[in-house]
């Protein structure tokens, strides 16, 4: 919608044509929505929006005269953008600038008003509807515009499959509006579309045809530009996208069964899998298996070419593995499409060596299951070796076999059987599963008894006939049996005095002689213990004539398990076992003396118990005698036998009151041998008592039984049996264990006792466990004044030298104490800052600063909390000078303050108006009381653009309105009231 200033509408009588806006958009969508559009480019600092008013002399009934005022109105309000027509300017165009901030986002109404000096006025018609967009779409740029691709596209780019399916692009645009145009730039390609409904996701789908035009690039720049219908626009940041829609990315193949990059050659199949990726059924594929460097052609394989639709798994002949054992092969494939071949990435595959379980060495048929070859059983017959099968065996592989043994004198006795070359695997060997070879008796007869015979074998799996690179098989070792083998026996074990130690017997001898039988002239090894932890005690050789062996050993104290092991059997063969115990000879010790309650009576201490249990140590299964006293006068209290295994001694005796000297005497030493001595005293039992409880310290006040206190630390004093232990308890729960002094007195301090009722007793740990009478008390909570208070009273303003009769509600609060003993009394250290009611605890804040509010309870305990007040401001009395607003502003700054805001003046007025509506008369300050003009209102800070507010402290309405404040030009002179704080 547009306006033609020469139209009939504009020429109507007394009508003023609309103003002209240079640079405005003449067409706005949808049609009829607005007359013009205002781009941000023509509405900027420093001037704002240029508005042109043509002279109205063309109108027959209306012309501009000198001193007419032309003023711009925006959205129904005068803008103060005006021009007074001076003489000579009646026929001139008028250029006005509308400042920033006067237009709002959306449609705005603009017109101008011509006012005669008489006050008559006319408005331009029609009112202009102008469309203004703020902010512009995509603001702030570039963050306000983002291009969003699906996560898989961001991670992997656009390949053929993604391009064929179409890629959805989402545009997140801040402040998007209908009719916005979005231009997407992808590399050198771009496309533009219009936003219809910004409330819905803004999307665009890029097709395969689009990507064909865009082309492939691993770092394709992507950006977009958003422009609204007024020409306002922003551009996104540039991002980058990997586009490879027109190329094949062929991943490396895999081999079924591979572990990482390793392949076990014992697997039965070798199958190469080609990853499908983006391959189409019409593509042709060929698989290549390239053997390790230097391998013959038989170690590599290339499959026949076939269509992808025929399958992506290819079987490779297993025979290729034999040429690359322990080496690295490369596996790949080639795709052919439209006559173009593309190779895949290479798979480097490590072919592992054959494990020992896959390499089965030859065996001697006549040997037993334990690999013992009985040469005596062969007589004059030969033995037979069978060479067996192994993984990847193939006719034509050369073999080597050698036997290594020893004669009876220990010299080497070896035999080379095969040496490669013509010695090779044949088809019969493979088909029947073995190949026989005679092992002549003459070689075997020279092998020594108990010696080993080892078969060493290797094969050239790659048929290179190179013994250095041939695969070495595990050795197969046999034990040669050439004499009769008997099971050894252990028939006798004697001590140092040649006395037999029977099975399960005890001895103090640490030197033992063992005897038994074994194969004549062959060794046995003596062991003490069992299993892997058994300790070898040396080797003995049987007499070559009688077969008797004997061996002397030293053993430690303790249980022994003795046996002989054959050193001539091919497997583990043991004699019978002899078990015995070597007992140490020790001096007896008295370790514990326990009272009737099983409590230790330490050396030199006393007890009330007349029944005592003595514990100690002695040689296992030996006797000690218990004595009380010293010398010939010592009294025997009986004998006790040490435990057969642990040597523990335990016995119970009865004694009378008085001093005692207790000890053990050994009954198994050849001379008189005694234990250590335990001295103690048996005293009479005394029931515990609590004689005093004091609060806080030993010098504190006594707390009578059944009373209350706020103390949480108590000092207890009482009586009990001397040197004994008692338990101080609270309602049966142990609070402390106390050792009674030598005179029978005890004391203990308990801290941190909880609030509430308590019942303390002293209970003995001796005798019949007597307990004292209960001492009860109640702990009250401590007197608590409450938390410190901080008030920031920003709306509390007082007049200089004249505090108000009352304070704002936010300057009053009540905080009551708790704990202690009510009632409470309250006082303030500084009532000028804050006062408090003596009984209720209500605090009234009056000035900035801090003071302590003290609380005293009925027990005369006193505490306090701190009140900190800030934010109270002072309005200074003015002088007798009238000032313009700038002069008033500078005057208050010079006084260290500022002009009050309108809200602050209202708060000040309302506070003092409680004492009388005319605050000016109440204060009596100069120039602010009744005055014949409106100039007695004082300046305030609010306003701008050449006009500021004033405030009438008399309460009189300003400018005939209904509030005591109004707006006036800055050049008028008024009183200045300055605000401090």
Discrete helix count:
10
Quaternary structure state of the chains depicted:
single chain
How does the helix and strand content classify structurally?
mainly beta
CATH topology category name of the largest domain: Immunoglobulin-like
DSSP strand content? 35-45%
- Coarse shape: flat
Mean pLDDT: 91
| Span between termini | 56 Å
Summarize the main sheet: 7 strands, mixed
**Total number of distinct structural domains:** 9
Helix content: under 10%
How many DSSP E strands?
Answer: 74
Summarize the structure in words.
The chain folds into nine domains: 8-132, Immunoglobulin-like (Sandwich), CATH 2.60.40; 145-243, Immunoglobulin-like, CATH 2.60.40; 254-351, Immunoglobulin-like (Sandwich), CATH 2.60.40; 356-481, Immunoglobulin-like, CATH 2.60.40; 489-582, Immunoglobulin-like, CATH 2.60.40; 589-682, Immunoglobulin-like, CATH 2.60.40.10; 689-776, Immunoglobulins (Immunoglobulin-like); 789-870, Sandwich (Immunoglobulin-like), CATH 2.60.40.1080; and more. Strands 19, 21, 22, 23, 25, 26 and 27 form a seven-stranded mixed sheet that branches. Strands 1, 4, 5, 7, 8 and 9 form a six-stranded mixed sheet that branches. Strands 29, 31, 32, 34, 35 and 36 form a six-stranded mixed sheet that branches. The chain is flat, with a radius of gyration of 58 Å. 29% of the residues are buried. It is mainly β and 981 residues long. The chain has ten helices and 74 strands. Strand 2 (43-44) and strand 3 (48-53) form a beta hairpin.
């Amino acid at each position: 919608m547009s306006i033609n200033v020469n139209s009939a509408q504009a020429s109507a009588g007394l009508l003023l044509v609309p103003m002209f806006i240079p640079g405005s958009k003449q067409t706005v969508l949808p049609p009829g929505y607005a007359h013009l559009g205002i781009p941000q480019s023509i509405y900027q600092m420093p001037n704002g929006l240029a508005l042109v008013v043509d002279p109205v002399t063309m109108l027959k009934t209306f012309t501009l005269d000198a001193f007419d005022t032309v003023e711009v109105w925006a959205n129904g309000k005068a803008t103060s953008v005006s021009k007074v027509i001076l003489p000579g300017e009646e026929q001139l165009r008028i250029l006005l600038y509308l400042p920033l901030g006067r237009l709002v986002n959306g449609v705005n109404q603009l017109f101008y008003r011509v006012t005669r000096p008489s006050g008559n006025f006319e408005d331009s018609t029609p009112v202009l509807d102008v469309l203004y967009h703020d902010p512009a779409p995509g603001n702030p740029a570039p963050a306000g515009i983002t291009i969003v691709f699906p996560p898989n596209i961001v991670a992997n780019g656009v390949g053929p499959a993604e391009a064929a399916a179409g890629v959805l692009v989402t545009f997140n645009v801040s402040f998007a509006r209908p009719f916005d145009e979005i231009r997407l730039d992808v590399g050198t390609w771009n496309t533009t579309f219009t936003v219809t409904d910004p409330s819905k996701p803004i999307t665009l789908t890029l097709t395969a045809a689009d990507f064909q035009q865009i082309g492939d690039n691993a770092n394709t720049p992507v950006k977009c530009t958003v422009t609204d219908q007024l020409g306002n626009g922003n551009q996104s940041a540039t991002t980058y996208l990997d586009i490879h829609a027109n190329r094949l990315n062929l991943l490396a193949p895999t081999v079924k069964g591979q572990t990482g990059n390793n392949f076990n050659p014992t697997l039965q199949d070798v199958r190469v899998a080609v990853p499908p990726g983006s391959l189409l059924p019409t593509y042709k594929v060929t698989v290549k298996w390239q053997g390790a460097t230097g391998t013959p052609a038989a170690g590599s394989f290339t499959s026949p070419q076939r269509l992808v639709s025929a399958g992506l798994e290819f079987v490779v002949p297993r025979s290729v593995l034999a040429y690359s054992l322990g080496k690295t092969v490369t596996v790949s494939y080639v795709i052919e499409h439209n006559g173009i071949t593309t190779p895949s990435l290479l798979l480097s595959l490590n072919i592992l060596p054959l494990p020992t379980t896959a390499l089965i060495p030859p065996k001697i048929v006549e040997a037993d299951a334990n690999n013992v070859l009985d040469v005596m059983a062969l007589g004059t017959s030969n033995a037979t070796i069978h060479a067996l099968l192994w993984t990847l065996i193939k006719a034509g592989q050369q073999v080597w076999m050698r036997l290594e043994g020893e004669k009876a004198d220990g010299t080497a006795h070896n035999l080379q059987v095969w040496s490669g070359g013509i010695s090779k695997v044949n088809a019969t060997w493979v088909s029947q599963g073995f190949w026989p070879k005679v092992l002549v008796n003459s070689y075997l007869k020279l092998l020594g008894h108990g010696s080993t015979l080892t078969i060493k074998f290797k094969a050239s799996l790659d048929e290179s006939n190179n013994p250095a690179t041939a695969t070495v098989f595990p050795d197969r070792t046999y034990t040669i049996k050439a004499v009769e083998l008997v099971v050894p026996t252990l028939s006798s074990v004697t001590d140092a005095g040649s006395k037999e130690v029977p099975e399960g017997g005890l001895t103090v001898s640490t030197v033992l002689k063992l005897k038994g039988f074994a194969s004549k002239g062959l060794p046995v090894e003596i062991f003490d213990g069992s299993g892997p932890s058994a300790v070898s005690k040396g080797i003995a050789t049987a007499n070559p004539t009688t077969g008797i062996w004997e061996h002397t050993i030293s053993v430690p104290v303790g249980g022994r398990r003795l046996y002989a092991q054959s050193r001539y059997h091919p497997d583990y063969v043991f004699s019978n076992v002899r078990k015995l115990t070597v007992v140490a000879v020790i001096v007896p010790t008295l370790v514990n003396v326990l009272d009737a309650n099983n409590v230790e009576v330490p050396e030199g201490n006393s007890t009330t118990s007349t029944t005592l249990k003595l514990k100690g140590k002695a040689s296992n299964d030996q006797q000690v005698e218990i004595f009380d006293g010293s010398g010939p006068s010592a009294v025997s209290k009986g004998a006790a036998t040490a435990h057969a295994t642990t040597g523990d001694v335990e016995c119970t005796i009865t004694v009378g009151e008085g001093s005692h000297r207790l000890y053990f005497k050994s009954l198994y030493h050849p001379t008189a041998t005694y234990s250590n001595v335990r001295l103690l005293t048996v005293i009479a039992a005394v029931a515990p008592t609590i004689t005093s409880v004091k609060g806080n310290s030993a010098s504190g006040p006594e707390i009578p039984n059944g009373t209350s206190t706020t103390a949480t630390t108590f000092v207890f004093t009482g009586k009990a049996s001397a040197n004994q232990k008692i338990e101080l308890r609270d309602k049966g729960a142990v609070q402390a264990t106390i050792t009674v002094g030598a005179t029978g007195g005890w004391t203990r301090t308990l801290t941190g006792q909880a609030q509430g009722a308590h019942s303390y007793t002293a209970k003995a740990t001796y005798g019949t466990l007597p307990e004292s009478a209960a001492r009860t008390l109640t702990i009250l909570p401590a007197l608590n004044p409450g938390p410190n208070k901080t008030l920031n009273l920003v709306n509390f303003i007082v007049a200089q030298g004249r505090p108000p009769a009352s304070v704002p509600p936010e300057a009053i609060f009540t905080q009551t104490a708790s704990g202690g003993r009510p009632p409470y009394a309250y006082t303030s250290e500084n009532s000028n800052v804050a006062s408090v009611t003596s009984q209720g605890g209500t605090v009234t804040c009056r000035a900035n600063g801090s003071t302590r509010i003290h609380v005293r309870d009925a027990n005369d305990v006193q505490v306090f909390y701190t009140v900190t007040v800030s934010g109270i401001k002072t309005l200074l009395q003015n002088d007798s000078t009238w000032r313009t607003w700038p002069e008033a502003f500078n005057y208050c700054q010079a006084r260290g303050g500022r002009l009050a805001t309108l809200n602050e003046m209202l708060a000040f007025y309302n506070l003092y108006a409680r004492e009388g509506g005319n605050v000016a008369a109440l204060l009596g300050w100069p120039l602010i009381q009744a005055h014949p003009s409106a100039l007695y209102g004082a300046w305030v800070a609010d306003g701008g653009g050449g006009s500021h507010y004033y405030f009438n402290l008399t309460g009189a309405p300003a400018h005939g309105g209904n509030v005591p404040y109004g707006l006036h030009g800055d050049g008028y002179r008024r009183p200045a009231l300055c605000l401090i704080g």
